[in-house]
Amino acid sequence: MFKSYSMELAGRTLTVDVGRVAAQANGAALMHYGDTVVLSTATASDKPREGIDFFPLSVEYEEKLYAVGKIPGGFNKREGKASENAILTSRVIDRPMRPLFPKDYRNDVTLNNLVMSVDPDCSPELTAMIGSAIAVAISDIPFDGPCSTTQVGLVDGEFVFNPNADQKANSDLQLTVASTKEKVIMIEAGANEVSEDKMIEAIFAAHEVNQKVIEFIDTIVAECGKAKHGYESCAVPAELFEAIKEVVPPVEMEEAVFTDVKQDREENIKKITAKLEEAFADNEEWLAVLGEAIYQYQKKTVRKMILKDHKRPDGRDITQIRRLAAEVDIIPRVHGSAMFTRGQTQICTITTLAPLSEAQRIDGLDEAETSKRYMHHYNFPSYSVGETRPSRGPGRREIGHGALAERALIPVLPSASEFPYAIRTVSETFESNGSTSQASICASTMSLMAAGVPITKPVAGISCGLVTGDSDDDYIVLTDIQGLEDFFGDMDFKVAGTPDGITAIQMDIKIHGLTRAIIEEAIKTTKEARMHILNDVMIPCIAKPRTEVGEFAPKIVQIQIDPAKIGDVVGQRGKTINAIIEQTGVKIDITDDGAVSVCGTDADKMNEAIRIIQTIVTDFEEGQIFEGKVISIKEFGAFLEFAPGKEGMVHISKISKDRINHVEDVLSLGDVVKVVCLGKDKMGRISFSIKDVQ
Fold first, then answer.
1. 166 found inside a domain
2. Which residues form the S1 motif domain (predicted)?
3. Which one of 119, 272, 499, 504 has the minimum C-beta count within 10 Å?
4. What is the dihedral of CA 412, 418, 424, 429, to 10 degrees?
5. Structural domain boundaries enclosing 611
6. What is the pLDDT of residues 158-174, one digit of tens each?
7. Are the C-beta atoms of 168 and 255 separated by less than 8 Å?
8. What is the pLDDT of residues 217-244, one digit of tens each?
9. 22 near 41, Cβ under 8 Å?
């Protein structure tokens, strides 16, 4: 039966239609927020997927260009693979919701969000986040919700919840917070150096807004919610754990995992696995789940060591950062390069500079963002973790890590008018053992400075982890988590920023939320670690941006012309500007406001192109001196070209101070001569003189 529910959310009406469409899905909500429409559905398989030891959740966010009245480009004229924004949105929906499903649930679950209409003032991403939470909450799929998500902006020092398009454009903060009734379960932020205290205030202001939405969802669930279905648990049998401890006592497992070398630890676990496989060779049921059981045994061992004994697997103190190293200029001929190493995590970032015309074009639902001048790409090859698998291009994790680093660095980049370049940084993961995304931020900062990009301040990033006990007060926050502590811990809290504030946050958790005390301690811990990385490692390596771009980087000179003259420079069908490019070998970009960027590697050729452009846009006036090439000779004089499409005439009487009978006696085709403008002749044409040049 069709029911509709509405509430006011940030000054706009949020409406949820249940039972109107997609009745065969386990749960479906047709969401309306202003004129934004998103269909959110949740479906689950009847039986668990065999042979897996994880919860198979898939989250999709489908952008349809009809939602903004566009036909897709390209030959096929239909949407192709998911855009970067769609992938990032899917990740933001996935991260808070995944921990709320049962840990022993192995049925396939798909959350699909179909964007059908977009109101620029009502975020389709936010609508999909709330829609997914409602679709699961009213379905029969086991779920420990409901949850809700709120976006926060900071405009003129004031918080704005679920900001509209204008507010987003003027905001110093782009914060997304997801919550349950009790706790915060996800944080994602980009910020213009927002202080730690202000960020904490914003997080919990969003948490309060989430409570109002959760109350609204509870109303819907009470009337429309289905009873949750039972499922076949895939939990490891308790008797198997007891049998494992008989073969491998806890002290032996502690010795196996207590090492600072990842490869040694993995080798120790291989030996333990082989020992247990031999011990249980006759029990096929136990062998089928032995891998998961060993994982759980390691997890319990590591968590107990950290929480109760304050011992980390590599022997570090709770707040100690692994060995750090930094260097620049390690790759020749590129425009900028730097390498940052933290323990067994090592990133090399290469910076490439190019004309603004090479900025990335974006064909998506956000009409406010049609291009990206700064691009950060992150690569994670299998050799970085000692594995072998073919490269199939970047996955969702790589795209997410690249976007996080990009978000962290955008606030310190110079404007296009200050530095008229498109900028690309590529972070290559050489070795990985925890928090490569934050290492890529450090490496990218140094690479940008080495390339001569005048960033306003250096940015560093670090991650901290969490191990919790039986109560909210029983926990420990770890600085600089390595891979093992990430796998077996409860949180990966990444924070990047300058000495003056935060520029990016991403928080992943595996539990049902964080208290305010944990979040405050995590933010405080990461700031102290960032300052250590900046002051003791990065700044001693390269203290400030180089004053000039590198030898092999293109040089760009920018001049300003009257916007009314742009057509003269471009010429009919681009004839004039193409002639300048062909003649000088430079690249030329012109913006609508008359900013002309000339890009090249040869200073003389660049100066020549600038001279030509300035000649084209200059109105000939009496007394001005020009340089032109003879392109035509007549009995009465010679015609000179000063720039493509810009010509003038020198009468025979104005060629030489001595009397000449023929123009050819003094001038030949192709000669380059200096002339002075004499103004207009009787016929209204501009005339020039060679003999009167002073």
1. no
2. 623-691
3. 499
4. -30
5. 555-617
6. 999 999 999 999 999 99
7. no
8. 999 999 999 999 999 888 888 899 889 9
9. yes
